Amino acid sequence: MREPAFWHRPSSWQSLLLRPLSALYGAVAAHRLERKGVDAGIPVICVGNYHVGGAGKTPTVLALTGILRDLGERPVVLSRGYGGRLRGPVMVDRGRHKAADVGDEPLMMAAHVPVAVARDRVEGVVLAKSQGATLILMDDGFQNPAVSKDVALIVIDSERGLGNAKVFPAGPLRAPLPPQLVRTDALVLIGQGRAADPVSTAIAAAGKPVLPASLQPDAGIVAGLLSKPVLAFAGIGDPARFFRTLRAAGIDVQRERAFADHHPFTAEEIQALIAEAGRQGLGLVTTEKDLTRLRGRDELASIVREIAAFPVTLEFADVAMLRSFLSGRLFKARQKQFHAAG
Predict the structure, then answer these.
(1) 15 three-state secondary structure
(2) Would you kindly state where each structural domain of the chain is located, as residue ranges?
(3) What is the pLDDT of residues 150-170, one digit of tens each?
(4) CA–CA gap between residue 69 and residue 135 (Å, rounded)
(5) Alpha-carbon Rg of the chain, whole angstroms?
(6) Per CATH, the architecture of 219-310 is what?
(7) 3-class SS at 139?
(8) Is-same-fold flag (15-73+134-215+315-337; 219-310)?
(9) Phi and psi at residue 123, to the nearest 5°
(10) Is the separation of the CB atoms in 171 and 205 below 8 Å?
(11) pLDDT (tens digit, 9 = 90+) per residue, 244-292?
């Protein structure tokens, strides 16, 4: 889905026209948030966002994986597997599965951490526990009440913020903001922009941590892309963030091509991008997630070699604070589960 431009305008006739549908959707979403989910029996950390589209959840999940392992945990990621055909529950196997099977994000994450894909999140919990997980790291699912969360980490892009802050379809919010703020345990603030200031101020005022972070590209990849200008394309939730990250790394982005999130590129589209880049003497670069999806397509195998991936990792400004926060919340979660079992 490509986000409509009016979602990012303070007021518009389209948003006003959609207010009745937005009120209905918001009421249902707020009611769902109040439902009590199934206790997983082990701690559940949910990485989510307030709005539809991209915010940086996948790099956040991968960064948390490393920190949790340093704390002695064995995390298993639980994903819905958006864009994949398999309902699950199934553990992602990079040697057997393609993005069309399990989704591009789970396939990419499975290179670093065990990933369970399940449309039914409760079934996914059972599978994750069978793999020896000491905790479950949910990729998305903040607004889904199926599984009870012990920690809810919300990711927000500081440049993008919440757009017009209206509920879908009048705006990008998945549910009314107040009940989402109440259920937020910490905010991961990516970048140096000011668009998310109202949200970060509200979270800090509630005595909850605001965790600044930044996306850092691979130095070797950057060096290889500095030799000539590029045509950059992306089919992710927020392509503009990808283009900004490229430019911030010093890469000369001459052309941008934005597609909808999880866009199913055709061979004709990729050949057209390669031809356009060739005519203008440009390199061709895309996101790691997009290239993961393209590499799984047999009909594209011979041409994707001309495309460079631009992987990024998320770095937290204060890792010690995050470690302390996670340790404390995991201790409380296990105490609660121990008393419930007794």
Answers:
(1) helix
(2) 15-73+134-215+315-337, 219-310
(3) 999 999 999 889 999 999 999
(4) 11
(5) 20
(6) 3-Layer(aba) Sandwich (3.40)
(7) strand
(8) yes
(9) -65, -35
(10) no
(11) 889 999 999 999 999 988 888 888 899 999 999 999 999 999 999 899 8
Phi and psi for 280 in degrees, rounded to 5? Answer: -100, 5
Other beta carbons within 10 angstroms of residue 324's beta carbon come to: 12
Q: SS3 for 167? A: strand
Domain 15-73+134-215+315-337 has CATH 3.40.50: yes
Helix (H, G, I), strand (E, B) or coil at 98: coil
Helix ranges restricted to H, the chain? 13-17, 19-33, 57-70, 99-102, 104-109, 121-130, 177-182, 197-205, 219-225, 239-248, 267-279, 288-295, 319-341
- pTM of the full structure: 0.90
Quick one: which of 278, 324, 285, 275 has its CA closest to 307?
285
Instruction: Copy the structure tokens of residue 121.
Output: 């999140």
